[in-house]
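REQUEST ID: PR-0412
SUBMITTED BY: lab tech R.K.
PRIORITY: routine
TASK: structure prediction, single protein chain
INPUT:
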Amino acid sequence: MQRFTRVDEQTPTDCAYAAGIIDGEGCIRIHRAHQYHKDGTPTYHVEVMVSTSTPVLAEWLCARWGGGITFLQTPAGFNKIGMCRWRLGSLRATAFLEDIYPYLVLKREQAMYARAFQAMSTMHKGFKMYPEWAEMRDRLFQKVRDLKRDGKLAAPQAA
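STATUS: complete
OUTPUT:
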């Protein structure tokens, strides 16, 4: 099914196009898993995903930034095409957000918090989680969740 050759370097046009996809149809989130570290702090990870009825779009994203594609079953009568989801997690998601950040309009703030969260998670790796870090991670998780829940998106800037 792969229609695209793996691309190691993205052009500014690729990044701008991907940012438009994320602004319009994508999801940037900090996922809190139902697992805990040894010190009792929750496990989190950054995720970026796009659900689409156009598999070629998911394949294009996957060829440029990696990740995985899952085909989803849709409710009967929803559509005959079906849906698929492209997903990136943690470091790959953050690298993707770094690439598209200059071009994001509506979900720029979500991306900013997700990038800050991942930077903090990377600092923690292999070290004891300080209570201040755990609190900061919780606050970043809440900020992204609240932005999504309240539908707060940045207003496009006039040219």
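NOTES: The longest helix spans residues 131-150.
REVIEWED BY: pending
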